[in-house]
Fold this sequence. Notes:
By secondary structure, this protein is mostly beta strands. Helix content is 7%, strand content 57%.
Amino acid sequence: xxxxxxxxxxxxxxxxxxxDDLLSLSLEELMEVEVTTVSKKETNAFKSSSSIYIIxxxxxxRSGLTSIPELLxxxxxxxxxxxxxxxxxxxxxxxxxxxxxxMRIMIDGRDLYNxxxxxxxxxxxxxxxxxxxxxxxxxxxGASLWGTNTxxxxxxxxxxxxxxxxxxxxxxxxxxxxxxxxxxxxxxxxHAKGSTRLYATRRQxxxxxxPSGDDIKTVSSRNSGDEAYDGHHLSQxxxxxxxxxxxxxxxxxxxxIYKGENEEQSKNFSLLNYTKGANLHLSYESELSLNSNIxxxxxxxxxxxxxxxxNNKMRMIDVSFQHIYTEGRHSIVWGAEYKNSLxxxxxxxxxxxxxxxxxxxxxxxxxxxxxxxISFQEKxxxxxxxxxxxxxxxxxxxxQPSLRLxxxxxxxxxxxxxxxxxxxxxxxxxxxGYIDFRDSGFIIPLHDGTIQSNIINTYEFGYRQQLxxxxxxxxxxxxxxxxxxxNDGTDADYIYGYELNSKYALLKEWKLExxxxxxxxxxxxxxxxxxxxxxxxxxxxxxxFYTYKEHTDIDLMYYFLDSTNTTSSYSRIDLRLEHxxxxxxxxxxxxxxxxxxxxVEANADGIxxxxxxxxxxxxxxxxxx
Length: 625
């Protein structure tokens, strides 16, 4: 905590002065930002009745962070822990897990959630950071619109329109820790009906070190100080094309292809994973009238991960339709979606191997949703009922309703509250998984034959206010009531918490931000309520973005995560300097984890080996022409 006081001291010192060049417009513009993840339509973020946070392109650039999981550290209350060189544990309002089971991660609405184990392979997400427009993060349930397995949040990575990425961009970053390097190149051009960009990017990390017993309470199989088995590299290329058929009709086509390798260690074995995948995504939007438009979205996604023990392939087909209609006090959005996923999971060798039966399976999900924003009292009150119905092959019919209410006493304040019912479907692994002792001739099932979802009732209250031309506050209180425990998912009876985010425009050239979150929960074990000791109680983050004479940036970030029963608390400070000697040239140096040589951020609980996060220095060059 001493580091936080030192970090904020200059902020408090200068905040008492009277300044003529305050950036008053920055907060006003922030209050007008439109987001789409909250309601599946453009919604004013400041007036939304959800706990929403937006990571802007400026934050992405000035953070000095080099991957999507690392960027999520910027989100208030989000628990981000790097397990090793290629795996992360990320969650919101729940104990941190390797796969983020009850959070939905998307890129431009394309779902990255893997139903085989109910989670996300973070190491396969390799978006070129310069092409991201913003990252929208909804902390809390999004089930009534986005469906099951969204009780803890929805993350939507939204990339730029191809028209905003014209010309050539080349960036190279090199770091000393794990011999990190990331290279990216992009070329954008216009054509008769729109714009297109082509890109390629590659990231590579060498091996890190195994933590000591003092750093982590569950020690890895390797000896303290040894080289960890967690190297990683991933190459990816693709394109995005935005086509304007006419003023009312637009098409967006995108495709990515990637291939890489990950080293993975556990307490019992080490594996080399070979990862590859490809996708094709088509979106169509049509404005039928001033108060009515439709959208059609379709994609095919292929993913494969193979090692000397397992071979897992996933093919996903998704088609969705939605209609937005506004009439009088009603603003309605409704739609339907069909998902078809083919999974082939085979194991090829070894004894005591995790396997699944049947090895080849097709799952289908059909769903419809409806939401209506109903305005009262000259739009100072908005009541939003919504419902999503879906049918899947495991738990059959699922109903996920939500009621939200927002009140706007003036243009600078928003009060909102919500009640939501969410379900988390069991994964294919939780239902059909088993341990195969083929050498001994027997198996151990991972389930008892019952199939049921996690059911979570969430109650939220939020308050946003622009207190002055310089200061903006966003507060959220929540309570998660776990009504039914399913085959997998968060093991809890209840979790509650408070989340605060504040933004302060100290000078025209100086932007400050600070966040705090408190989370606490209990679980009933053998008739007794016990605290969930794998849930970090306190998280703190702060940032300072200062621009000196238009050509130099001095950026400072602070993170604190409280201890759990498996990891110690840690504080981290990152410092970034950027200079722009030319209009089209950026040179930057970032120092990460400056407070200590190394620390541990998360524990994999024996699923995958841990390694330390080391102090690092990263140099980056970005050139456009």
